[in-house]
Amino acid sequence: MRNIWSAMAGFAPVLATVATLIPVAGAAHTGIGIVVLGAAVSLMSGRAAHGGGPWRLLLVPVGAVVVAAFAVLFHAAHAYGDAFFVVAVAAATAARALGPAAGRLGRALVLPLIGMLLAPVNPGPHPAQTLAWATLAVFVAEAYVLLARLIRRTDAEEELPSTAPARVHVWRGVQSALALTLAFAIGQTCFGEHWAWTVISAYTVGAAARSRGDALLRGAHRTLGALGGTLVATVLALAIGERPAVAVALLLAILAAAYYLRQFGYAWWAAGVTAALALLYSLLGVSGTAALPLLGARLLAVLIGALCAILPATLLAPIRTGAVLRKRTAEALRSARDGDYALAQRQVAALREAAAPLLAIRRLRERRELMWVDALTAALPDLRTLAERPQDPAALRRVRKTLSEVADDLRAAAGRPAPVPVA
Question: What is the CA 358 to chain-centroid distance, rounded?
Fold first, then answer.
């Protein structure tokens, strides 16, 4: 129940953004593009793993310049816009090597660009006016996300500091550049005006992948989710017809359900977005059987985009899942040993997320690292107890025993001898 309320509160900024921008779009006769753009930015910003702050609103004008540059360059020539987008995303990814503040800044500036792919803004005959409406949509979305976070202050929204070497972030930037370049080239060659589906798929699979196995798992989830969403969308596309009020209500309901179910697997989110897309088609005037070929094309574009992200992640300086788990395990052990039990809990949660690729194939292959994941997960109740009562003798004894066992096995896996106890 607590997770349901948390998901509802997290989705509230999206509803508020849509409710605010629909009358604005109607009064200004801009179409639903700014509504989709605002909802997309609100969804992505609300899911971002950082607390945010008022400074993000100050970045909106800067983001407007980035969006304007992308829109003008892209409509002048696709190649210019493509290159701008690839360089911007690669730079934002590599910027994490400079520290968490640079990483947050890069993500804040990239979000409107991703929103532009979902809801392209054509400068048209009045570029300043059109882009001003797009900037307003981003500002409204960010303001509601910020307001929600100010109302619901929780430690879970704080970002764990990255301890990865700077070269890892730089290589991830190179990987993202190659993935997006492939996605742009294939998407614009094979899918015409729907090329953005390939690019979005490549970005979502590759941007957050922690390792080679994570990229493979995300690609599989996104493809399976898109397949399931396509089946649902096929029925909806035939049933909704030209009823915009029903389409809007169902679209928001599906996105809200997908927002909640995402914690159980990324495939749910991909399925929800795919089904919502069919409803968006009905709002854009593409309904009934006319939408069916687009759904099949989107499924193929999603698969190709996922492959575009997987290839660089697996072939170019790949990050092994086992190496990530060893690092995460060592960090959790260090925090618990130093008595920072609240941080240790968050690091165990991050460890479980990083272990998802190995957990997915556990029945086929048991890995040594999963024993560490199991042991530290079982210690979570005691870590919570120690975070409130640091001197609880029973919990302290059990945690120390777990830490000793995991640390010894971690050293053995690294080929280092266990420390000799002092008499």
Answer: 20
State the average pLDDT for the chain.
80
Q: What is the DSSP letter of 210?
A: -
Instruction: Express each pLDDT in 210-235 by its tens digit.
Output: 788 888 988 888 888 888 877 777 67
Give me the pLDDT at residue 421, please.
Answer: 43
Contacts of 23 (CB under 8 A, 6+ apart): none
Rg of the chain taking only CA atoms, in angstroms: 23
Cβ-Cβ contacts under 8 Å for 359 (sequence gap 6 or more): 352, 370, 373
375 CA to centre of own chain = 28
Cβ neighbourhood burial of 362 (10 Å; 0-12, 13-18, 19+): exposed
- Tell me what pLDDT residue 49 has: 47
**pLDDT above 90 as % of the chain:** 23
Domain boundary assignment for the chain: 1-152, 165-319, 321-413
CB neighbourhood size of 401 (10 A): 13
Dig out the tokens for 110 from the structure: 């990239």
The answer to whether residues 378 and 348 touch, using CB atoms and an 8 Å cutoff, is no
Where is mean pLDDT largest: 75-79, 169-173, 179-183, 301-305? 179-183
